Predict the structure.
Amino acid sequence: MSANGTPLLDVDGLKVYYTVTGEGWLIRQRHVLHAVDDVSFQIAEGETLGLVGESGCGKSTTGRTILFLERPTEGTVRFQGQDLGALEPEELRALRRRMQIVFQDPIASLNPRMTIGQIISEPLSVHHLAEGKARRDRIAELLSMVELNPEFVQRYPHEFSGGQRQRIGIARAIAVEPSFIVLDEPVSALDVSIQAQVLALLSNLQRRLNLSYLFIAHDLAVVGQMSDRVAVMYLGKIVELATRDDLYQRPHHPYTQALFSAVPIPDPAEARRRQRLVPGGEVPSPINPPAGCRFHPRCPLAQDICRVDEPVLRDVGSGHRVACHFAEEAARGFQAALT
């Protein structure tokens, strides 16, 4: 929290719905796709919140909507106490200096017609932060901060490797001295050895610049390395939210347990001994999500109440919140499977 006790970012009841059109019998049918459905969380100054889940669960849409790159259907996003939805366009543009994003694809996120110097210079120009020699010095400083040679300013994105291009994207994001950065799967397109280097760079920059991160990923190992707290998302909803250590040592939601069960174990004997939890069926469509608990069609613990009543995100102790009617039983069963 900040000095006055207000979180840096406060997301409350966020919903993002899209209208999609499909072919029906004789007529075109319109459907509503529930990309993000009633998501709430907070991020404190200097904190990293990991957001993890399968592809298509709404993680990236949540990140983009927080920055108002997309408008929410419902809900509020408050940054440093300001309601972003209530701001005029010019006010929002000014506040965006404090909120930045690093995209998943370092190739698609960089303009191939611009040099690296021009790419990093653009946000400095938009926000009138530096001119002339001061701008050139700032660009050189930013390249050094992301461990690239400042002499690369005249090169183009295609002349760099994937890891170097992602460093350029990071340099562009920190150029305007933000407080908060959305990291949208920043290492998923990189080789494992390069992933470690980029993650170390992000950690160093966080300590040096007092940054807060929303770290979006599907890799639990990466999320565990970077995050202070972790939120697990399934079909547009957060189903579990806890500190990293608490979540990794004692997951309560059956979906979270299935994610951990799918993580490869380097010891073959341990892998054979451990019981693997595999959800049945397919992920339901966000156009027609199931009633009650959205995970119930695939959950081994589902009972009648799960098919009717949607579980709320409740505290099961020490700030560990989970949306499951049988969270305590699931936690005990998971621990028993490990022993």
The chain has a mean pLDDT of 91. The first strand starts at residue 9 and ends at 23. Residues 253-339 form one domain.
